Amino acid sequence: MPIGEFCNREVVFATRETSIPEAAQLMRKFHVGDLVVVDEIDGKRVPVGIVTDRDIVIEIVSQSLDLNEFSVGDIMSPQLISVQEKEGVFETIRLMRAKGIRRIPVVNQEGGLEGIVSADDILDLLAEEMTELAKVVPREQEREAKTKI
Please, what are the domains in the chain? Predict the structure, then answer.
């Protein structure tokens, strides 16, 4: 199944220039723990980084720095890993595991932001699929029992 079929398409994003207080307000307003940092290129939102609530705490709050002195671009993770929307779920899992990341932006062929998927999203999908698969076993056993008689 392509990751683009079930990724969250309502991505909360910011630009490099977004202030840290604005970023925190966006996270609170939309109940998210991360913002995808984008550059607007030819009318497309191209992901260039990601910033998490943890980044804000570790990089700024824990050091008693002035929140207003920094922007998202100052603390974002610049080594952004993304996945194409046509990639499969298991390829995405392998990439997330190899890179040690819990969230990954989903992009189209042109590199434009299409969505985001988290490890929790994938776990929910797999749990749902396993539940459906578990329902098959009793039905199959029941069918086999009827044909034996």
Answer: 3-118 (3.10.580.10)
